[in-house]
Write a structure and sequence with these properties.
With about 325 residues, this protein is an alpha/beta fold. It has a domain of about 190 residues: 3-Layer(aba) Sandwich (Rossmann fold). About 30% of the residues lie in helices and about 25% in strands. Helix 3 crosses helix 4.
């Protein structure tokens, strides 16, 4: 893994200004991403992880907007760039793979036409070179007879094949950073495992940096070197994936791990975190997790916890879980 910082996010704040009030979807998120590294961004639905990814690419629509913080790609500030400047970065330097491939693929255009347009938008390659690149990347992602698939339409492909094509479209222009927003959630387990392996090989072979957004800690543990756990728009725990998953310090991370089906015994009910995620319109004072936390004390209800760290392992909790034994 190279030591260069591909992406640095500092105190990012993305809010939605609605009639009911201000929704602080992302509220002070910070992390760095290095070349050849995969960062897992995990949390329940509504935690802000997808909006973090959209913010990086400038894909937040009204009534949302970035109200504070910094997003630096290889030292270049992206917050505040004009639309045309962002389009030059989007797809060429930083690309995104969406959970639903039909958010990427146009049902009215053949696969080859869509890939050709993506390549033509970011360079002056001749048509033959664009076609060769499209065939090359489809083959790399395990699509049989890739040259013939260029003439297919999205509805003619299976769900797994459509997702592979969507990933291929993101890789066409050899971006330095890929944001993968739960790209395997809708796929069956065997296809999911194949795509995870292909993405892991891609990172190893090309040195691309990746943010893998997911609610599934088991998936994240298989692809990521570092993990950041989000709750109510903030990162509550982060660090090397092995340290965080084997010795979580925040009760929320512990709850997510205990909820995995593999943690239970056959016939026993699955563990679950009590309650529901808070509304971001009326986020509770203090630690936002305290209404669901069995370790909450009075400071948890009144004071926002500061980030503490054991080496590279950071967490925001007044009453952290004991440090794991070596």
């Amino acid at each position: 893994m190279t030591a260069d910082v591909a992406l640095a996010v500092a105190d990012l704040r993305t809010h939605f200004f609605t009639r009911a009030g201000v929704v602080k979807a992302v509220d002070g998120v910070s992390f760095t991403l290095r070349g050849g590294e995969v960062l897992g961004l995990v949390g329940e639905s509504g935690s802000g992880k997808s909006i973090t990814g959209f913010s990086i690419l400038g894909l937040v629509d009204d009534p949302g907007r970035i109200v504070g913080g910094s997003i630096r790609y290889r030292g270049r500030e992206l917050v505040g760039l004009r639309a045309a400047e962002l389009r030059a970065v989007r797809g060429r330097e930083i690309a995104m793979v969406f959970q639903d491939p039909m958010m990427t693929l146009n049902p009215m255009l053949a696969i080859g036409r869509q890939m050709d347009l993506a390549l033509a938008a970011h360079g002056g390659r001749p048509a033959a070179a664009r076609r060769a690149r499209s065939v090359e990347i489809l083959g790399r992602l395990g699509i049989p007879e890739p040259a013939r698939r260029l003439a297919a339409y999205p509805h003619e492909l299976s769900g797994g094949m459509r997702q592979r094509v969507a990933i291929a479209c993101a890789l066409l222009n050899r971006p330095s950073v890929i944001i993968a927003d739960e790209p395997t959630t809708a796929l069956d387990v065997s296809i999911q495992a194949q795509i995870l392996r292909e993405m892991t090989d891609l990172v190893r072979d090309t040195g691309v940096a990746m943010i893998w957004i997911s609610h599934d800690l088991a998936v994240v543990s298989s692809v990521a070197q570092r993990v950041a756990v989000m709750y109510a728009g903030r990162i509550v725990e982060d660090g090397p994936v092995t340290a965080v998953l084997r010795g979580p310090r925040h009760p929320y991370t512990r709850g997510l791990l205990d909820s995995l089906p593999a943690q239970g015994r056959p016939g026993e009910p699955l563990a679950q975190i009590p309650g529901t995620t808070p509304s971001l319109l009326t986020r509770p004072a203090g630690c936002p997790f305290h209404p669901r936390c069995g370790r909450a004390t009075e400071p948890c209800r009144t004071a926002e916890p500061e980030r503490r760290a054991d080496g590279e392992h950071g967490f925001r909790c007044h009453n952290p879980l004991p440090e794991a034994a070596p």
